[in-house]
Structures are given as structure tokens and as C-alpha cells.
Amino acid sequence: MPLVMILDDRVTNRNIFAKLAASISDDVRVETHGDPASALAAIGAPLPDLVITDYKMPGMNGAEFVRHFRQIPGCEDVPVIAITVYEERSFRLAALEAGATDFLLSPVDHAEFLTRARNLLQMRRQALIIKGRAHDLERELQDSERSRQQLLRDSKERLAQVIDTVPACVSAFDRDGACIFLNSRAAARFDVDAHGAIGQRADALLGDEMGARSLSLDQMVFRSGVALPTFEEESAGQEGGEPEYWLTTKSPLRDGDGMIAAVLTSSLDITDRKKAERHLVHLAHHDALTGLPNRTFLQDRLRREIARARRGDRIFALLMLDIDRFKTVNDALGHHAGDALLCAVGERLGTHIRKKDVLARLGGDEFALLLSGIRNPQDALDRAEQILGALKQPFTIAGEDIVVGASIGVVLHPNDGDDAEDMLKKVDIAMYRAKAEGRNLYRAFDPAMMSSARGEITLEAELRRALANQEFELFYQPQIDLRTNRIVGAEALIRWRHPTRGLVRPLDFLPFAEETGLIIPINEWVIAQACSEARGWCAHGLPPLRVAVNLSPVQFRNRNMVALVDDILARTGLDPKRLELELTETILMHDADAVTIELRELRKRGVSVSIDDFGTGYSSLAYVKKFPVDRIKIDQSFVRNLTSDPNDAAIVRAIVNLGHSLGIDVIAEGVDSADQVEMLRAEGCEEAQGFLFAKPLPVEEFLALVQADAAVARSA
Ligand SMILES: Nc1nc2c(ncn2[C@@H]2O[C@@H]3COP(=O)(O)O[C@H]4[C@@H](O)[C@H](n5cnc6c(=O)[nH]c(N)nc65)O[C@@H]4COP(=O)(O)O[C@H]3[C@H]2O)c(=O)[nH]1
């Protein structure tokens, strides 16, 4: 039953390590100690098979503890893992010299802890078997009546036979450094003949470096008379191949007089295990899609960076970034394109980091950058600016040029936090703020952001309450026929009359509603309310105006739109011809065939369909042919500079011509000047909507405007 001894002055660590060690196998026994002195005092039969000790402890550090431990009979070759936050060579050397077998860096990665501990326990078991066999042989040597010379020759042969059965390279060298035997594995490893090797020196057999190391360690055994603790060593691979790893034990071999005749070295090839261990550790720390470090890796490096920064006056920064419009690309071009975009973003970010920085993918479209050793806070902001610039350049994905951009949050250590979780939370808040403030920008964390971040947590609850308490209302923005100058329809635009914040605009809560799925009930309310109000307008003696409502991609994906619209039209009694659904290109591109079927059904009922924000999405202009639509809405970004930018004028002309060639009407949105109207009219654009005519208006004001318009029409 293997015994694992845990030594750590912190009770939390002790408990965690004890639990981990106990999970290695059912028969493992675990003993914990809080201070080195009591751990040393408690050592007796049975001896521990593995010791895991903290390095920094009050009273005695890890190196001193190991030194004392090694002096206890039987503990010379018990494997010891030292846990240290120090990566510096000097600490490692001190612990190695004192006899530690291996290291783990604090904070300890659980997967790494388990693999190391499991391997060392297994090695220990094998080492004990080898030791037992060597011991038997030694006894035979001592008991034998034959002459010492004869005895040595016989025993060498027997030793070779026994040792040949051991799954390790085993060799013995005498005091002069000459080989007295090699087992067959060692002979094969060193590419020599086992008999021909007898009498040769270690450096001739093992190569200069390994040979010299082996000889000097043998001398230590000759001098001390005790076995060396098991240690790991690395050797150059055969024929210049990958390096090989060994777990080596060296113990004295005594003759009949009790004199040390030779040193027995057994080396177990652990190369495959090392590789498997590294692979496992790699998998646990990397993202499968991009191959970049993952969140676990980042957290680990962040903790180390904090520990290191505490000891010096270093500052470092953590940047978290989220790809703007990633969801749109994913929805429009599919998951493969989304994956390709993430890999391309990862690669581009990779060209902007230095060797000591860490670039990680945290999941979804979120990446993080740990910038270590920056000189001042401005450095971090400059780097954020550079990254924004780099990500603004288009990516070519699936043959399309895609422009994305990013929102970046920045936190600094020690100013913004002194523990990893806290820093991650704050950088997330800063990034969220960058997103909320318009995307494609960076924001450094500011404590004032904490209160608004908490506000966002309650936003979901508030939106639910708003639905239940009917805090939403619809404003209407008139749509004008440019040929007659009459109001022919209106776009319904949602507003939230918040009990304390006043009137909230849609872009301040709709993106959040999209993320949480609350957009579905909200939009259902919008369609029902718009249909119900429009149905009532005729009672005011108004002409049968068209009413347009915006649909969200989420809503189209999750709902049977035909059934929903049928139900609302039946309930409100609105003539289907008066309802228009505004869709974005994203909705059309996603699952185009299914959307087309639904749109055909809706149009059969008389409902009309328009494409909103036309020209801003990914579809080529010709793509619109595929879809059953009645109207294209030219995005306001093209209308804004229509009279000053020839490119925008050309785009508007192309859209109008396209519409006409397909028999589709065109409406321009965001029209706010008479010059724009003139140009649109000259191009043949049928309708317009914008502040020039009216802003979105509360329903009563809108009705008053339409009544006035109708009066003008009557008097004309
Ligand atoms: N600068 C300028 N702006 C003009 C002008 N004319 C109209 N606008 C604004 O442009 C937006 C037009 O609506 P949209 O493109 O569908 O863009 C809408 C739409 O995408 C979304 N939205 C509004 N209501 C709903 C809704 O009920 N459901 C869904 N799914 N989305 C909605 O929110 C967006 C913003 O709505 P609003 O804030 O009401 O902003 C409106 C409107 O006030 C102009 O001449 N100049």
C-alpha cells in the first residue's frame, strides 16, 4: 500500500494535495503534515513512497527539509516533489542538491500534479523491485564460500542474468570507472556488445556528457556509501533524434568484506511517459480550434505573473478582447467560416505579441493577452490601439473579404487588482464597456464601471418586468412616397419608458435582449401592438397606411413566423396587406432555403417584406434576386453622404437600378436634407424616411401628422 506524505504549512493546500493524491488509486494512503519538524519526526515504518513538500515554509525551507529527510535510513531514494513559486534556477538547484526528485510550480495544476505523482509512485515500485533483486545478489555474494575472485566472476554472470530480466538499462562501474557489466538493454541502448563493454570507461560507452555525469555521481556513492535518490535525467536522442528521458537510481554494490566494489546504475526509459505527460498537459491547457493557450493556462500564468510582480516592482497588463460582429459572420456564412475567422484572428494577434506575452483564446470569440513587464500604463493602451488597428484590416474567409474589429478591455496590475479572478472579472467589465460604447475601441478599467456592471446584471430582470408591466411603447416614423410627397406608411420603432431612467432608446437594450433571448417576447409584443394600433387608425378616418416592424435574427431562427403572424393578424383583424416585415441581410443569409419558404407563405397572405440596412451586409447585390421581397431599404450610411461622396452616390444608384430591374421598390432611410431628396428622386428612388420629414413620433403625434398630411392631400 503506497504511502504519500504531504507537507505544507497552509491547510487549504494540504487538503487539496491530499485529495488529489488519494485519487491516484484506491490503495494509496496519504499522511499530511503542517510543519517540517513534525513530518521528520513522524517518519518510521512504513516509510513514505512519495513526499510532496512545499518549498517556502516557516522554520525550515523545502531544501533543508529534503536534506534532513535524505539522512533518514531508507529515505535516500524516496522520490520527493518540491512545490515552488520560484522559477529561478538557484532555487531549483538548491532543492536538487538537497535531493529533490522533481518540481511543480505553484499554483499547482491538478492534471500535472496527478501525472507526476502517479509516475513517481510507479517508478518507486519498480525501483524497489530492482533494489530487492540487487539486495538478494549482494547476500549471495557475502554468503558464498568460494574464493573472492571466483565469487565475483560467478556473481557477475548471475547478476547479468537477473538484471537482464529487469525492464531498465542496468550497468555497474567499479571505483576506477571501468564497466563490470551491462545488461542487454543497456548494451542495445549504447549500441555496444555487453561482453566487449566490460573494462571500458563510462564516457567511452555513454558519451562524454552522460558518461562524465555518471562517473561523478558514482564517486559520490563510493564516498557516501549510500544510494543516491532517484532522479530524472535527459540524454541526447540516438542519431540526433528527440531527447530521451530516464529515471535513474544509483546504489552501492558491496563485496563479501562489506566494501563497495561497484556502483549499480539502473535507468528506466520514461521518454514515452514524459511525452504522454506533456501531451496531456498540453491538451488541458490549449484550445483545440486555434491551438492557443486556453483559459486554464492563462489563469495559471496570471497567478504566476502576480506572484512574480509582488516580489519586484513590475507592472503588467491584461487585455481581453471580443470580436465585433463575429455572431453576424457566423450566422451569415456558417460555422466553418466562423471557425476559420477565429483561427485567422488568433494568427493575426499572434504577430502582435512578444515572446514573454501570453495570447489565449478564452472561448467563443473572446481572446486575452497577458502583457508582462510593460514599462508604464500607456504601453498597455498603445498595444491595445495597435491590436485594434490590426484587426480592422479585412480577413479573407471563404472567398469573402470580412471586416470585423474588436472591443478591448484593459486592466493593470497592481492598480486594478491583486488576484487573478479579480483581474479577469474587471477586464471583462472594461471590455463590456468598450462594447457598449460603440465597439471597435478599448477601455481601461475604472472602478466606476463596477456599479454599471452590476446594473447590467439586473437589466435582464428589469426587461422582464418591463414586459409584464407594459413599459414598452411604439413610436412611428413616417415613410413618404417621393412621387406624391404623401405619407404611405410608417416604421414602428420600440421605446422603453423606464420608471426612473425615462425614455430608453432601442440600441441601449435590444442588443442585451438579443443575447438573453428576451428579444423573442419583446418582438412578438411589437408585432401585435403595431398591428393592433394600425388597425385602429382607420377609425380616425386615416388612409390605410402600411406599418413596418423590425424582425430579429434570433426570432426568425426560433419561431415559426408564419404561424405567429397568422395568429396576430387573426387576433387584431389588420389587413395583411398593411403589414410589412423588415428583415436584415443576416436573417436572409441564415438558412436561406427555410427563410425563403416562410417568406413565400407570408407573401401569399399579402404581407410584404423589405430588406433593412441594405448594402451593409455580406450579400452581393445580385443575391437579393433569390429572395421573395417587396422593398429594399438603402442603409442610412449611404444616404448620409449621398450629395458629397461620389462612391455613396454610385452605390445608391446601383441599388435603385437593381431594385427596378427586379421589380422591387426602393426606400431610402436616414434622409435629413432636401438635397438628398432631390438626388434620390432623380435616381428614381420611390420612397424615403428620415428626420427631414419627421423623427420617430409617439403614436398621437404621428396620427396628428398623418391627419395634417391627409388634409393637405384633400386640399390639393
Ligand atoms: N441620424 C438619423 N437617424 C435616423 C434618421 N431617420 C431615422 N433614424 C433612426 O434610424 C433608425 C432606423 O431604424 P433601423 O435602421 O430599423 O434601426 C433600428 C432597429 O434596428 C432597432 N429597432 C428599433 N425598434 C425595433 C423593434 O421593435 N424590433 C427590433 N428587432 N429592432 C428594433 O433599433 C434600431 C435603432 O432604432 P432607433 O433608435 O429608433 O433609430 C431609428 C431612427 O430613429 C435620420 O434622418 N437621421
UniProtKB/TrEMBL annotation:
Please give the start and end residues of each transmembrane region.
none
- Record flagged with keyword Nucleus: no
Q: Which domain of life is it from?
A: Bacteria
> Which catalysed reactions does the entry list for this protein?
3',3'-c-di-GMP + H2O = 5'-phosphoguanylyl(3'->5')guanosine + H(+)
UniProt-listed CDD domains: EAL, GGDEF
Q: Which UniProt keywords apply?
A: Phosphoprotein
Which SMART domains does the annotation name? EAL (SM00052), GGDEF (SM00267), REC (SM00448)
Query: Which residues are in the GGDEF domain?
Result: 314-447
Q: What's one GO BP annotation on this UniProt entry?
A: cellular response to nitric oxide
Q: Name one GO molecular function term.
A: cyclic-guanylate-specific phosphodiesterase activity
Response regulatory domain sequence ranges: 3-121
PAC domain boundaries: 229-282
Per its UniProt record, what Pfam families does this chain match? EAL, GGDEF, PAS_4, Response_reg
Q: Which residues carry this modification: 4-aspartylphosphate?
A: D54
Residue ranges occupied by any EAL domain in the UniProt entry: 456-710
Q: Which NCBIfam families match?
A: GGDEF, sensory_box
Q: What is this protein called?
A: Diguanylate cyclase with PAS sensory domain
Source species: Saliniramus fredricksonii
